[in-house]
Design a protein that fits this description.
mainly alpha; Transglycosylase SLT domain-containing protein; 4 domains; Lysozyme-like_dom_sf; elongated; Transglycosylase_SLT_dom_1
């Protein structure tokens, strides 16, 4: 409402009389008429004033309610976010949340346009505001309690972990128990537990601690006695369910411990002398001892038998690993000192440190080799054990002959072969010979009558010459490598299309068909290489491995080729388990591989005999090669001038039926 100005005495001037003030009064109705005329106007004015007051009141109320609603929304959003916090975060954010709520209230009040609207807003928001502030305060206090509870739980868990790490040490366990109870007391205070809840939590925590301790002792070392003693000492503080679970946990280890005790007693009762056999202990005797015990229940007996078998399997595997390591140690030593098995006759030559690592069978085989070499040396003073054999040559024993004859192959060897020695001059001559498999084969129809007579004279010369005492029939290193290259790949580094000769299935490469992984780590003293695309390097590795296998088996060529084809580890296992009939245990592919190599070696040796006989007949080397090429096709056809030398029929160890069978095999075989 506009204010009426009030004037002070010194501000008012004297009243002046004017003509207007002296005009006559309209008093047609008198005073009453004037009042009657003014009352309606007064009533209308009062009515208009009331209407304006009501409108302004409704307006202020509406604005105040709108502001209150917005304030409540903002406060609600803030309190919801705050309620999502917990623990330390809630405790730290309490003061800030309260300040933000009050700031929201102040901002809303500042939007009120008059005191009445402000008062209305204050009245409308007072309740929600107080409720929000109480919620923030309560949640902040709850966060503080949670902080205390989390700290108490952490202290309790650390106490239990410390006790577990102490492996059931009594002092550590007593301290952990005190710390657990103290932590639970702080947790009860923080979370306002009653006495009953505190007791329940204490009992649960201690029971859980004891249960975990028993499992920790078992897991740490399987000390079933310590675990059982701890359980019995603390079971009065364990819940019934935890007691049942712990008893079940202990039952299995206790049964195993009892079975182990029974097995140990059985092993001790049937003990074997160390070194008597290549086995960890007498499993059969142990089983018999367990079955004979009357004090065992059936379940205990079965458990003990199962554990005995498992124990034997594990111990046997460990023993096999030990003996394999011993074998490798012996091979490394033998390579370093150039140990020659053919010359091994002296006690003490193999150091005790090496002998101690060998398995009983390997040690027995080594001693047997020594004794056999001694016996041969006494019987035959010129036996190879008395004279070093050239490294580039191979002295063949009776085993090689038996492999040849036992599988239908012809050989020019007999029992006297072992007496042969090869001079360096002869070795150089034989190694310089060309590859007999690559001499071009001439057409059969090109044989002249004179050439046919010449071939016959050469064959007659062969039949009349005793090659049994000649070094010509001793295979050289190059002979073995050449036979292998032809069997593996027809002695091809590259295919006919010019591509590298790589086996698509296995990845073996070049003439010797060496695998890349073998080339990188060949073992057995062979020099490794990373040049897997270099034929020369790959074939070198293959050749070194082949000769290493030959030396490993003391010149036994069948075992050499078995190693090269089937793998030395596989062959070792077969030799260990099938000493007498090991050849029959090889895969068919490997047996055929050995026979094919022996066939090729046989032809290489015969080629050398053929050239020697040709030279004795005065035939040049070039002519002899042509005659050889004329004879080779007849070999597969069992016709023409190619015949079996008569020296074959001189072998008294073969029966007629066996001769006919070998002869047929000779005629039927097909060489590339």
């Amino acid at each position: 409402m506009p204010r009426v100005p009030q004037y002070q005495p010194h501000q008012a001037g004297p009243v002046e009389t004017t003509p207007a003030r002296l005009r006559p009064t309209d008093n047609s109705f008198g005073i009453a008429g004037g009042i009657a005329a003014g009352l309606p106007r007064l009533a209308q004015a009062l009515q208009d004033h009331g209407a304006r007051q009501d409108e302004e009141l409704r307006r202020d109320d509406a604005y105040a309610r709108d502001l209150a609603l917005g304030l409540q929304r903002d406060i609600g959003s803030l309190t919801r976010d705050f309620a999502g916090l917990s623990g330390k975060a809630a405790a730290d954010a309490g003061a800030e949340a309260k300040a933000r709520i009050l700031a929201l209230e102040s901002a809303a009040l500042d939007q009120a346009s008059n005191p009445r609207m402000r008062t209305m807003l204050e009245n409308l928001s007072a309740g929600p505001l107080a409720q929000a502030l109480d919620l923030v305060a309560a949640h902040s206090r709850r966060g503080l309690r949670q902080m205390g509870g989390e700290a108490a739980r952490g202290e309790r868990d650390l106490a239990i972990e410390g006790a577990l790490a102490a492996h059931a040490d009594p002092a550590a366990m007593a301290q952990a128990r005190r710390q657990v109870i103290e932590a639970n007391a702080r947790l009860a205070e923080a979370e306002e537990w009653d006495e009953a809840r505190f007791g329940e939590e204490n009992a649960r925590t201690l029971s859980d601690m004891h249960t975990r301790m028993v499992r920790a002792v078992l897991d740490d070392g399987g000390d079933i006695d310590l675990a059982g003693a701890y359980f019995e000492a603390n079971r009065d503080e364990m819940a019934a369910r935890d007691i049942a679970l712990t008893e079940a946990t202990l039952r299995g280890p206790r049964e195993l411990a009892e079975s182990a005790r029974v097995v140990d007693e059985a092993i001790a009762a049937g003990a074997i002398e160390a070194g008597d056999t290549d086995t960890a202990f007498d499993l059969a005797g142990t089983i018999r001892h367990i079955k004979a015990r009357p004090d065992l229940s059936e379940a205990q007996r079965q458990n003990a038998l199962a554990q005995a078998r498992k124990h034997h399997s594990v111990a046997q595997a460990a023993l096999s690993d030990k003996h394999e390591a011993g074998r490798k140690a012996f091979e490394r030593w033998a390579e370093q000192v150039d140990f020659d098995r053919a010359l091994y006759v002296q006690d003490g030559e193999v150091p005790e440190s090496i002998r101690a690592q060998l398995s009983p069978p390997a040690l027995a085989a080594l001693d047997q080799l020594r004794d056999e070499n001694r016996a041969r040396m006494e019987e035959n003073p010129i036996h190879p054990t008395n004279k070093k054999t050239p490294k580039s040559g191979t002295i063949l024993d009776a085993n090689f002959k038996s492999y040849l004859t036992g599988h239908g192959l012809y050989s020019y060897l007999n029992q006297n072969t072992n007496r042969l020695q090869q001079s360096n001059e002869e070795m150089n001559r034989t190694q310089a010979l060309p590859d007999p498999f690559k001499i071009p084969v001439a057409q059969q129809d090109s044989i002249s009558e004179n050439e046919s007579r010449t071939i016959s004279s050469i064959l007659m010369r062969i039949s009349q010459t005793d090659y049994r005492n000649s070094s010509i029939i001793i295979p050289t290193d190059q002979d073995l490598i050449l036979a292998t290259r032809h069997t593996e790949s027809e002695n091809r580094d590259y295919k006919e299309n010019g591509n590298r000769n790589i086996n698509e299935r296995s990845g073996a490469r070049f003439a010797m068909q060496v695998l890349p992984e073998t080339a990188r780590n060949p073992g057995y003293g062979a020099t490794p290489t990373n040049q897997i695309n270099n034929p020369s390097e790959m074939n070198r590795v293959g050749s070194e491995l082949l000769l290493a296998f030959r030396n490993r088996h003391n010149g036994d060529l069948a075992k050499m080729w078995a190693d090269f084809n089937h793998g030395s580890g596989n062959v070792n296992r077969i030799l260990r388990n099938h000493r007498d009939d090991w050849f029959e245990q090889l895969p068919t592919e490997t047996k055929n591989y050995i026979i094919e190599n022996l066939q090729r070696l046989d032809e290489i040796i015969y080629y050398r005999i053929f050239l020697d006989a040709s030279q004795r007949e005065g035939i040049s080397h070039t002519s002899a090669e042509r005659l050889w090429s004329l004879g080779r096709p007849s070999l597969a056809k069992a016709s023409g001038p190619w015949v079996i030398p008569e020296t074959f029929n001189m072998d008294p160890t073969l029966k007629d039926e066996e001769k006919r069978r070998i002869l047929q095999e000779w005629r039927n075989r097909k060489l590339r």
